[in-house]
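A reminder before we start the practical. When you read a complex entry, don't treat the lines as separate problems. The point of joint prediction is that each chain is placed relative to the others, so the output describes one connected object in space. Small molecules and nucleic acid strands, if listed, are placed in the same frame. In the example below there are two entries. Take a minute to note the order of the lines before looking further.
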Amino acid sequence: MLDVGAALRYARSNRARFVEELSALVRIPSVSSDPGSAPHVERCARWLADHLRRIGFPNARLVRAGGPPIVVAERRAKADDRPTLLVYGHYDVQPADPIGAWQSPPFEPVVRNGALYGRGASDDKGQFFAHLKALESWIAGAGELPVHVRVILEGEEEVGSNTLRAWIVKHRDTLRSNAALLSDMVMRGPGQPTLNYAVRGQVAMEIELAGQDRDLHSGQFGGAVHDPAQAMAELLASMHEPSGRVAIDGFYDTVRTPSRRERRYMTRVAPRDAEILTAAGATVGWGEPGFTLYERSTARPALTINGIASGYAGAGSKAVIPSRAVAKLSVRTVEGQDPQRVVQQVKRHVRRVLRPTMRARVTTTMAVPAATVETSHPVMRAARAACVRGFGREPVMLRLGGTIPVVSTLRSALGIPAIMLGLALPDDRLHAPNEHFELENFFRGIDTSIWLLRLLANRAMGTS
Amino acid sequence: MLDVGAALRYARSNRARFVEELSALVRIPSVSSDPGSAPHVERCARWLADHLRRIGFPNARLVRAGGPPIVVAERRAKADDRPTLLVYGHYDVQPADPIGAWQSPPFEPVVRNGALYGRGASDDKGQFFAHLKALESWIAGAGELPVHVRVILEGEEEVGSNTLRAWIVKHRDTLRSNAALLSDMVMRGPGQPTLNYAVRGQVAMEIELAGQDRDLHSGQFGGAVHDPAQAMAELLASMHEPSGRVAIDGFYDTVRTPSRRERRYMTRVAPRDAEILTAAGATVGWGEPGFTLYERSTARPALTINGIASGYAGAGSKAVIPSRAVAKLSVRTVEGQDPQRVVQQVKRHVRRVLRPTMRARVTTTMAVPAATVETSHPVMRAARAACVRGFGREPVMLRLGGTIPVVSTLRSALGIPAIMLGLALPDDRLHAPNEHFELENFFRGIDTSIWLLRLLANRAMGTS
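Here is the predicted structure of the whole assembly.
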């Protein structure tokens, strides 16, 4: 029973075919942001449902909930008392532009130097396909799955996962699981398995300031009326202290600071300031005093201005006092921060700072909470052990600075932790030309996933 | 000799023909900003040179100095010892868009309710044509001009007067005159003759801040690197005190404050705060404490942000830390301020405030000084007396908040004062659909100009 050796042997003897199948999947240009690619997105979903049926998920089906189809499939372990694992992936990909920068066509996958090149090879087709191949290896090699499995593959991740998130909330009762598994992130470096245990939340807002009801001549009125561009600058500048701390009342009140133990661990394994600056192409760091750049960009909240537009900013000059100014800002939240409360804090700040010369309209376009898994959680222990088996090395545990809305939704709607196992490398060129996926990480990912399924069967993960 | 009565009688008996001629001039769509209209601009210049030749300027000619032709003509008074008056106008017009908002086609001038409707009717064809008709009235009605006259009509005012300004500087020696006369502004109100005695200067600059060498993911790096959009907000906000005063070191050091006498005069005749707010469509004033809104927007310098652009400001949100931010700003300067010194002050401020996270590039696109004429200057006395004769009423003397580069150039290159006699009304819709010109102001303008020519002959205006 639960013959992990058989599953591993099956996986190893079928590697060549697995790569061919992945190539066929990458060949489908399932670009979700391009309406003209909708037939390809649909075709990709059908390809995956067919494939799942062939590898042992006879009930694989397409769920239509508004956006691109969600591919859903379940298969139970032989023993009823096993936990349920939700395997997530997304089959949509980023656009391939600029096409000219690709060394080989983005949707004609080829293997070069041990890596499969093609749009989506690592984000996310190659990464989630490793888990499908692990499932196949258990079913075909060992004749059973160690845990109950629910596969959910969406086609809308690159444009926000809205359909899937609403669908999960709506079907929270029938989707009950014990943990989620997803690979849609990067490893710390070659050969270094990596588990992410925290994602930041995101509050995205737009502020519009309106002064006069039309653009005014800056000669005629300059000096006598407040300029919305200037007022916006003043408002945005007021949101940070010169030190780099966010200056919005109550902003840090509920922020949970990492434990001393975690901070020591981060100091040891996480990217140092110099490494982060190099990755950013920056020469000088910035931000909240008392924390490393890694901590500032993962374990601490941040407020960034994503864009400002007001008046005329083209060639030459235009003598105008603009009638309005728009700014986009986003707050990355951490555990302890309620996104809705952050929204209220920002709105209160705008009201407090706003001069009577201006009217403000503040809208919220996104409010997703942070999600964290205790690194001592049983599923994390299983994941660490699986990494050791699959990669021959203890994984590093890292926080993610970004937001993965579906992880937050799984956490808030289903109450389950996500195992975030990065299989791509930082220089695999996700979202860029010449995206690729190292086959070594594909194979090690399959082995790790096989082990994970096995180890989860032993763990107490709460009721299913 | 100098039979002003004969000139006035000639003008009055030819009014109908003058309106027909002005209509023919307005009919030519001389839109300088539209390259496709270049033939019309050329045709307009030729029409004017022909017209000048017919009314007594046989040497009227087109000067080609790079841009649209400059129409130039001279005619001397009989007596050699008379001063020289430079009559300026611009024959180019604003585009007519949105065409659909016009009650009658913009280039098919018609008279309705005592006003001539058409693009350019008031800005500036109708206004400068009044002076040409005054010249004609002297030559044809009285047989001579009271002063030497130099006519300069440009076709590039609506796009910056660059050609003319360079040409004036280059030919400063041959253009020597005692005063300039121009009508390209508005009156205080119906029946109220208005002389402008001051224009503000303008320094237009662009500031570009560059942080990282590319846009960054705001989840990955938010909190660890400085955001150029935020840095720009902080920089721009630092340029004003909360009170509304400009916070740039030395900015006010050389500013000449109007005399108590002038301030009393302004309090009496200039627009009050409420009137300026209504014109601006604003509810609350703003700016330097201790001055009225009129003073702040004419007699005091002002710094306005004309535009800001950074990152993404379209629909939805984009998780980006922009790599750069651009802002356009303009300073309206007053007498006592050297534009080049203001440029240096702004640059020094940027250097002082700039954080080490950012690189700044500051470029200057315009630096034109303010120009003021003492209201007690002999030519201003003549102009006031002429207004009383032409309009039956003492003119108000007002400062202009805007900049008229050619006035500043005439002042700085030729050292001469400009008589700025507004003949358009504030609601004549200059630059807007349904532009028109009240014929009453056309006729009163001609009479005023006839009187002005006569009165200038008597004045000591310095050497020619």
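Discuss with your neighbour: Chain B touches chain A through 84 residues (CB under 8 Å). What might explain this?
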